[in-house]
Every structure is written in C-alpha cells, then in structure tokens.
Amino acid sequence: MPPEGLGAVGGPFLHDGIGVVAPFDFALDRELWRWVPPEATLHLTRVPFVPVPVTVEMATMISDEEAVHRAARDLLAPEPKVLAYACTSGSFVNGARGEHALTSIMLEAGAPAAVTASGALVEALSVLGVSRLAVATPYVDSINERLVSFLDEFGVRAVSCQGLGLLGQIWKVSYQEVVEIVRLVDRPDAEAVFVSCTNVPTYDVIPLLERILGKPVLTANQVTMWGALRLLGRSAAAEDQRLIRSSHMSAA
Q1: By C-alpha distance, which of 183, 250, 182 is closest to 219?
Q2: How far is it, in rounded angstroms, from Cα 120 to Cα 173?
Q3: Average pLDDT of the segment spanning 62-68
Q4: Would you state the pLDDT for residue 239?
Q5: pLDDT tens across 183-200, in order?
C-alpha cells in the first residue's frame, strides 16, 4: 500500500541522461536546458580552470585528453546514455583528428555514446546538405583560422569568417551583437550561417535570424544538444529552428 496521502501518484521516473563536459568558464547551463525535452535530463561538469585568455593555447588546454577523460568519468555516476563535449574551439583546435580523439576518449571512459560540439556541427551540415558556410565567432583570428581549416577537412568551405576578437567573458555577448555579426558575415553564396562558441547565447535569436536571412542559422549550443539528443533518438525542443524542424520532418 502507498503511504497515506500519496494515493496513485507514480514516479519519479527515470529520464534519458546527457552528460555534458563543458569548459571551466561555461556560463550558459540554462540555455542548454532549453533544447532539452521533458523526457531527457542534463548532468554537467567542467574541465579544470586554466589561467589564460581565450586563445589557441586555451582551446588546446581545455581539450587535454587526461582532463576530458577525468571529466567523462565523473559524469558516469548518474548513468547518462550520451556524453557531449560542449566546447567548440576545444573540439576543432586540433583538426578532425583531435575531434575524433575527444569522442574516443569519452567512449573509452565508459560513455555509451559520445559527441562533440564540432562533430555535431559537421553532422548537422551533412543533414542540411550545406557545403558553403558563413561563420560568425567571438574569437581572435588565430582561432578562426583553426575553425576554417577544420571545416575544410570535411569538404565545407567557409565563404566568410568574422570574429569579435574577444579574449574572455564571451557569455556577456548580447543578442544584438549576435544579430549584427551574423548579418555582417552572411554572403549570398553561403547556404547557412554558423555562430561558433558554446558560450555565445543564441536560443531566442535563431528564428529571427533565419527569417531575416532566409537560410539555416546554426549555433554551437544548438548543434551540440541536437547531436546528443539525436543519439538518444529524441528531438530537441525548438520547433521554429530549421535544423530542429528538418530533423522532425525526417523522423516523421
């Protein structure tokens, strides 16, 4: 018999878990949750702090294999079904080989399935049939060059790439700044636009930008959560974003 007053109330029920390995300065936990449907849940941890600005050096340090392996192991206690490495620069800074290594490290740590932000981007571009991309970032030029090179390894040409030149506190970029740099970087020959960096807030402006530009607008947090949920066989919670809508249609 259930305790008095509980009646026929059931639960709590298990959810599909996604473990997220984030950079030490990640500030957008709440944004990640906005893509998560009620049937899934997030478990987040961060790689150790490194006292350097947002440069190629930092991207390399926060993708250190030992640190990612340790973070992945820390996430396994609540038994997530997928692990996601939610740092764009950290997952493209060492090229396609580096991205593959990060995925392999999470799997070796015990993850049932794994995805990185940059790996999810490549997958999203393939699903949408995009091979010419405009790229907007908060980065300095040296990081942008690594991103353009990474895309090229997968047959995707960056027809334009513009950064804000920020060395820190990227999460403070405003929606207005996102809109301005996306409009600046777009080109007629770009089939889509990508906003890099998981510390750039974008959830609410994606539909607006897609209406303005008339093409898909992908963002780092969007593709990361889309990729992780796709591994779970679930759809992200964002009906008015082209990537999510196209996934719903292909699953129907």
Answers
A1: 182
A2: 23
A3: 95
A4: 83
A5: 999 999 999 999 999 999
- Give the 3-state secondary structure of 189-234: CCCEEEECCCCCCCHHHHHHHHHHHCCCEEEHHHHHHHHHHHHHCC
Residue 245: phi, psi to the nearest 5? Answer: -65, -40
Residue located via tokens 């899934």:
40
Whole-number pLDDT of residue 23: 97
Chain mean pLDDT for the chain: 94
**Helix or strand or coil: residue 162?**
strand
C-alpha closest to that of 85 among 163, 196, 198: 198
Task: Please report which helix (H) or strand (E) contains residue 163, including its range.
Answer: strand 157-163
* Neighbouring-strand partners of residue 217: 193
Grouping H, G, I as helix, E, B as strand and the rest as coil, residue 28 is coil
Question: Do the Cβ atoms of 196 and 220 come closer than 8 Å?
Answer: yes
Mean pLDDT over 144-158 rounds to 98
pTM listed for this prediction: 0.94
Q: Alpha-carbon distance 240 to 210, whole Å? A: 9
Structure tokens at 112: 């049932």
Helix%, strand%, coil% for the chain, nearest 5 = 45, 15, 40
How many Å apart are CA 125 and CA 133, to the nearest integer?
9
User: Which residue type does 31 have?
Assistant: E
Question: Looking at residue 9, what is its pLDDT?
Answer: 65
Confidence of residue 250 (pLDDT cuts 50, 70, 90): low
Return the SS3 of 113: coil
Strand partners, 89: none
